[in-house]
Fold this sequence. Notes:
By secondary structure, this protein is an alpha/beta fold. The chain has two domains: 4-162, 3-Layer(aba) Sandwich (Rossmann fold); 172-265, Orthogonal Bundle (ProC C-terminal domain-like fold), CATH 1.10.3730.10. The protein has twelve helices and eight strands. Strands 3-2-1-4-5-6-7-8 form an eight-stranded mixed β-sheet, sandwiched between helices. α8 (172-189) packs across α9. The mean pLDDT is 95. Belongs to the pyrroline-5-carboxylate reductase family. Catalyzes the reduction of 1-pyrroline-5-carboxylate (PCA) to L-proline. Its EC number is 1.5.1.2.
Amino acid sequence: MTRIAVLGAGKIGEALLAGLLAAGQDADELMFTERHPERADELTARHGVRAVDVATAAARAEIVVVAVKPQDIGPVLDELAGALSPGTLVVSLCAGLPTSLFEGALPEGTPVVRVMPNTPMLVGEAMSAISAGTHATDDQLAVVEKMLASVGRVVRVPESQQDAVTALSGSGPAYFFFLVEAMIDAGILLGLPREVAADLIVQSAFGAARMLRESSDHPVLLREAVTSPAGTTIAAIRELERHGVRAALIDAIEAARDRSVELGKQS
């Protein structure tokens, strides 16, 4: 099996480790780095995967997954640069950081794949978009696809589209959580207990998402199927349109894209 090292065992890093183990990866072929000894001991006890330092990970792994916070990337790249074995595939899960940043800091010819995942990776339902750097091959992209398929769905995009992906699916769960939060508040306003309102909305969201996934119908058709003439739903839709909710969402996602571009330039 491919030896994989995850640098940074936060929530996303741990979710990837757990997904790989669930998909059949041998714990002996996995390793991770973690700055806090207590956290490292906790993960080893939970998953049976050993903690190592960056130099050991770089020397032993065939795939090095960088899952640290973007602001912490400098020291990690410095350590990797002096220890990375030739041909090691580097996979970045760092939001906003271009492959050129890694290629400029690591040994010449290092293959790099950029990934924009999202937090549903924690429940095995991530949406991850991957892009090849200058030296990454189609075969290496396929390896990354297989690895990420253990924690959700994967799509390939040109790196020039990664800022749009970040705004749409990277930040996307937050938009849904925000909408659900507002709908629960509406339920409370209408006299429902919070627990009941939450149960109603969360299950409705789950069911609607499943319909979107499993149906070949456009979202407009699915919405129209709920919208009876002169009924309750069309009255609600009119208010949403009157308040410009559609335009606000488009503007919000565009603003997230612009911020992603800014963060990439700052790196």
